[in-house]
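A note on notation is needed here, since sequence and fold are reported together in a single record. The reader may check this reading against the record printed directly beneath this paragraph.
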Amino acid sequence: QVQLVESGGGLVQAGGSLRLSCAASGRAFNNYGLGWLRHAPGKEREFVAAIVWGGAGTYYADSVKGRFTISRDNAKNTVYLQMDGLKPEDTGVYYCAVQSRYSIALIASSNLYNAWGQGTQVTVSS
């Protein structure tokens, strides 16, 4: 059984930074990778970033490329999302989730992810 716990959200001014953490237990690090997705009020859930195990790389939504960085710490079973240059449109609940299978083609699809954390709120003020 996989358990994911996100933390690190908060309120920040535009241009500021936050680092989100996703602490994983169980078999999360034995799967294919982890992703971050977000859900803003009135919008559909959207892909933010993903990391695929085995050196298969990191992937980002165009809207966050160059501002966000996803990384992992194997010793701590934790995946991080460093968010710099935050914008009001980055506001939302951020979830980490486990990839259910290997598929780079579907990396940005929420259907690829089958285990989710409870989410952490990120609010960026203008």
Remarks:
- DSSP finds no helices and eleven strands in the chain.
